[in-house]
Amino acid sequence: MQFEHLGVRPRIHPDVVIAPTAVISGDVEIGAGCQILHGAVLTAEGGPITLGAHVIVMENALIRASAAHPVHIGSHVLVGPTASISGATVGDEVFLATGVRVFNGARIGDRAEVRIGAIVHLRTVVPPDAVVPIGWVAVGDPAQMLSPDRHEEIWALQKELDFPGFVFGLDRETPDLMVQLTERYGAALARHADDRRVD
């Protein structure tokens, strides 16, 4: 299914194969030879998503851009089942395994591997040819790779990256943070009420 969102339609190379249950919404450009499998969602929430050539987006993966955080995925990239990419830049020949999470402002270099269930945190830079091990967390610039049992170290690095400020423009110390966050984000998402199916 393809939708016009905020007046912009997806632009898809004619040889791309899109499963009938995939959703492509808004300012999304998909290059030659790409495959978008069942349940995948590519949603441009006010900012563009660009996929190079021969990108495979597997079942139930989510790729989301915002006005402040576009998504660019290079060529010959595999986005595994249930993976999530939000507002990030991914180089060429990158492997993003099943269930990975890549957050806003992250940059993943060419030929890097982010293995099953790993996380590339907010504003993190994974260099070319690097590997984020299964279930580990990459955090910082340059990325430090930490096992999930090292929560205090991860939090110490992550806190400085300021998720609520960077993604939502809100101070973490705001007393009603979740009230403001959900109301502001909900208002932005409500713009989908005017979407129009175009396929």
Automatic annotation (TrEMBL):
Residue ranges crossing the lipid bilayer per the database entry: none
Domain of life per record: Bacteria
Record's keyword annotation contains Acyltransferase: yes
Record key words, sorted: Acyltransferase, Transferase
Amino-acid biosynthesis listed as a keyword: no
InterPro entries assigned: Hexapep, Transf_Hexapept/Carb_Anhydrase, Trimer_LpxA-like_sf
Any one GO molecular-function label of the UniProt entry: UDP-3-O-[(3R)-3-hydroxyacyl]-glucosamine N-acyltransferase activity
Enzyme Commission code(s) on record: 2.3.1.191
PANTHER family recorded: DYNACTIN SUBUNIT P25, GAMMA CARBONIC ANHYDRASE-LIKE 1, MITOCHONDRIAL-RELATED
Protein name: UDP-3-O-(3-hydroxymyristoyl)glucosamine N-acyltransferase
Annotated organism of origin: Microbacterium laevaniformans
Phylogenetic placement of the source organism: Bacteria, Bacillati, Actinomycetota, Actinomycetes, Micrococcales
Gene: lpxD
